[in-house]
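User: quick one, fold this
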Amino acid sequence: MKRILAMALLCAALLPLSSHATVDDAHSFAMEAAQPFVNEGFIVREDYWNGEVKSGQKLMVKHQLFKGNEYAFWLGTANDGCTLEIQVLDEKGNPVQITPKVGVGPMFTSVKVNPPKTGTYSILFSITSKTEKGVFWALAYGYR
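Assistant:
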């Protein structure tokens, strides 16, 4: 897993930032956000979500989280100059307390959460660009 993460970081560093951004670039930036968490013992899951979305549009992914695990979510974009927002909601739509943003960069953001109980949670996020109508995104996660 560390080899895959290292390759993703290398690819992200070599990518030119241009209007030819892709969802693969967004995933590389999400993996860059994951690196400090891997160093803390988080296990990065291979599955992730990605796509292209209208700037500022909110997206939601539902995911099963288990009490007793700590989760991290990493949101990356391949578009310059974006504002990234991410939060975790319980099954009733109430925000779950998250650890203050511990990984924020120009192309990614991250949050950590300890679910208070096992259940289906919603990860709500958006990426807003001042210059682009559409943005590429990738949302990855890990646990410990």
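User: anything notable?
Assistant: The beta strands are 43-44, 49-54, 58-65, 71-77, 82-89, 98-99, 104-105, 108-113, 119-129, 134-143.
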